[in-house]
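Technical annex, item 7. During the second reporting period the consortium partners agreed on a shared format for inverse folding records so that results from different sites could be compared directly. Each record opens with the tokenized structure and is followed by the designed sequence. A conforming record, contributed by the partner at site C, is shown below for reference.
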């Protein structure tokens, strides 16, 4: 016998003062309700109700029990009603994990519009470059580059192909010259990036321009006088002429267009897989997550128009 059903049955009998009326309210027969009450009294080892042919009243033990369980059952009913509402409309807290680049490029500019459109959704955003276990850390979803999304996740593309760029200030290039191929980076001051997750220095990635390995990627260790673990600091250092840095085009495009940074080695930097919003299961995706997915895709489409240079066809020759 389910304890919550038996307690609800007891509460109904006490409130209605009648097995017949309580049974009608619960949509069961009076005999079934009487049997449930008897089982509850047997389980508790005490009589809860005084029964006569004319009325039903509470014993002292029954009165004490009703006082204790009535608020709890009312709160339980309220909690269940609110939970059911989650299946109908977008509300509740949505926990997200995103890397710093996504926070700056997407989350910051779209935040106000999303929260104005969906005021019943509360956002709890964790900004971290490390790979987060959504299930273990109780996140609803995350945003990462496609290559970093685990294969057992549901992954929704929210951007087109993207590119990295190697940039420095016009002043730096005037003083030190422009590298014509990645090998020449060894003679340049490169601003290095330390990965927060492992502490390793990020190796700059390039693609072979021609030959049998044309288009395939390879990594290259660079050296320089400055190491950071923050993209904004790397960007500022490059603008100040300290050295060259390697960043996503989307994070530096406005600075490049303004003439404060210039690109080199573009033939060795083809597009690659873009950003994905990912989550653990397709089963019963909560409305708060569904509306966020739809909104992010809508926002990303608007942000990509007019077409970004990062999505242009790569022409290595």
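Designed sequence (site C submission):
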């Amino acid at each position: 016998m389910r304890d919550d059903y038996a307690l609800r049955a007891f509460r109904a009998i006490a409130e209605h003062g009648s097995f017949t009326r309580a049974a009608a309210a619960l949509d069961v027969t009076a005999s079934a309700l009487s049997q449930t009450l008897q089982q509850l009294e047997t389980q508790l080892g005490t009589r809860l109700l005084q029964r006569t042919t004319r009325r039903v009243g509470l014993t002292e033990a029954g009165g004490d029990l009703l006082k204790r369980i009535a608020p709890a059952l009312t709160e339980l009913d309220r909690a269940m009603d609110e939970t059911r509402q989650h299946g109908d409309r977008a509300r509740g807290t949505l926990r997200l994990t995103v890397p710093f680049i996504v926070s700056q490029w997407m989350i910051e500019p779209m935040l106000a519009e999303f929260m104005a459109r969906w005021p019943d959704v509360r956002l709890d955003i964790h900004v971290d470059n490390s790979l987060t276990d959504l299930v273990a850390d109780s996140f609803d979803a995350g945003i990462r580059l496609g290559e970093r999304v685990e294969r057992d996740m549901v992954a929704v593309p929210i951007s087109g192909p993207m590119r990295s760029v190697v940039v420095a200030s016009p002043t730096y290039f005037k003083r030190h010259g422009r590298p014509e191929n990645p090998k020449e980076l060894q003679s340049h001051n490169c601003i290095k990036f330390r990965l927060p997750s492992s502490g390793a220095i990020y190796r700059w990635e390039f693609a072979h321009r021609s030959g049998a390995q044309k288009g395939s990627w390879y990594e290259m260790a660079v050296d320089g006088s400055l190491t950071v673990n923050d993209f904004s600091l790397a960007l500022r250092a490059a603008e100040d002429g300290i050295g060259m840095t390697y960043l996503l085009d989307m994070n530096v495009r406005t600075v490049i267009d303004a003439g404060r940074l210039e690109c080199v080695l573009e033939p060795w930097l083809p597009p690659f897989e873009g950003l994905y919003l990912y989550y653990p299961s397709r089963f019963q995706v909560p409305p708060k997550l569904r509306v966020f997915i739809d909104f992010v895709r809508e926002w990303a489409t608007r942000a990509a128009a007019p077409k970004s240079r990062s999505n242009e066809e790569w022409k290595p020759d």
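Residues 38 and 63 are 16 Å apart (CA to CA). The chain has a mean pLDDT of 85. All partners now use this format for quarterly exchanges.
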